[in-house]
Amino acid sequence: MIIRPMKKSDLPQVMAIEKASFLAPWSEEQFLYELKENPFCSLFVAEEKEYIVGFIDFWITFDSGCINQIAVHPNLRQKGIASILMEDALKRLAGQGVRSVTLEVRTHNANAIKLYEKFGFVSRLIKKAYYDNGDDAVYMEKGLIS
Ligand SMILES: CC(C)(COP(=O)(O)OP(=O)(O)OC[C@H]1O[C@@H](n2cnc3c(N)ncnc32)[C@H](O)[C@@H]1OP(=O)(O)O)[C@@H](O)C(=O)NCCC(=O)NCCS
Description:
Radius of gyration: 15 Å
Helix content: 25-40%
Number of helices: 4
CATH architecture: 3-Layer(aba) Sandwich
Bound molecules: coenzyme A
């Protein structure tokens, strides 16, 4: 498996994973904005034998990082793919001088929270009704030594 920057041609496979993974999936336009226009954005895919099996989207603003999305194909979960994506992203973030990484995750998304805790993220506060459907978010943070 390789981790590489996402290309526009990956969009159909990424969208399929996105739709299967999130309650409020991003649109193709949002991904295209992230890919082509957002100067703060990094989007990486995990590719196995020419198939996209997962992706991660993160932003870097000066010395702060933010994980926006991480998702793995539903049939390929619990095989360590998100961990590989996360490890790679954290190395890139540290390599670019990022000192603190944050994220929001739905309070009921126990699997994702476990993934983040595995990588040293700590819950800092609950953001009430953070999502459109009224779900609360856990705001998590991890310091990086760069
Ligand atoms: C969260 C998600 C990305 C994890 O992907 P994954 O490839 O299955 O994760 P990994 O196999 O690398 O597991 C990493 C850790 O997450 C936790 N975890 C992941 N899935 C789990 C499950 N079903 N049950 C319990 N723990 C789980 C474990 O702590 C695991 O570490 P361990 O195997 O050493 O115990 C995946 O479930 C997913 O795509 N979910 C939908 C999208 C989403 O919710 N994204 C996060 C919010 S942006």
